[in-house]
Amino acid sequence: MITIIAAIAKNNALGKDNQLIWHIPADLKRFKKVTSNHHVIMGRKTFESLGKPLPNRTNIIITRNFNYKAEGCVVVNSLNEAIEVAKEDKNPFILGGAEIYKQAIEIADKLDLTFVHHEFNADVFFPKIDTTIWKETSREYFKADDKNKFNYSFVSYLKK
Q1: b or e along 104-128 (b: 16 or more beta carbons within 10 Å of the residue's beta carbon)?
Q2: What 3-state class would DSSP assign to 35?
Q3: What digits encode the pLDDT tens for the residues 51-97?
Q4: Predicted TM-score (pTM) of this structure
Q5: Cβ(46)–Cβ(100) under 8 Å?
Q6: CA separation for the pair 39, 94 (Å, rounded)
Q7: What's the rounded Cα separation, in Å, for the pair 23 and 4?
Q8: How are the residues of the chain apportioned to helix, strand and coil, as percentages rounded to the nearest 5?
Q9: 3-159 is classed in which CATH architecture?
Q10: What is the DSSP-derived secondary structure letter of residue 91?
């Protein structure tokens, strides 16, 4: 089961200037819990925005640069190669960015999304979710509070 995990805004915004636009601690806590002890696949820019490998996970970085090195990570040159490296994991996660999501949405089995109920000015966007292909299987709604500035929902989809 290949899972795409992402936090996206109402207008499908993912980020701006290689950074997340919002800060929702509940989403980060859930992300850590769900992805720990799994392979996480991401593009080079996403990795560099994190600044270091995510602990308790096998970090796989996709880049076109054949000379790219990142300590504590596996570096590959394609999404297919990344999936091959993660084949022993029953549920690897794809963390983005936008270009990786665009490729991965064709082959993923599950979408594990945090919808931020707000529109943001962004320069990268999540692909449109085609409901003829994806079926929503769960949704949990949360109101903004003193720690989480925006209303948000955790939503899962499975490929039909």
Answers
A1: bbeebebbbbbbbebebebebbbbe
A2: helix
A3: 999 999 999 999 999 999 999 999 999 999 999 999 999 999 999 99
A4: 0.95
A5: yes
A6: 9
A7: 20
A8: 20, 35, 45
A9: 3-Layer(aba) Sandwich (3.40)
A10: S
Beta strands in the chain (DSSP E): 3-9, 13-15, 39-43, 58-62, 73-76, 93-96, 110-116, 124-125, 134-142, 152-159
Peptide bond between residue 97 and the one before it cis (omega within 30 degrees of 0)? yes
**Is the Cβ–Cβ distance between 92 and 39 less than 8 Å?**
yes
Residue showing tokens 């915004």? 13
**Where are the domains positioned within the chain?**
3-159
Cβ atoms within 10 Å, residue 151: 15
Q: What is the mean pLDDT of residues 135-159?
A: 97
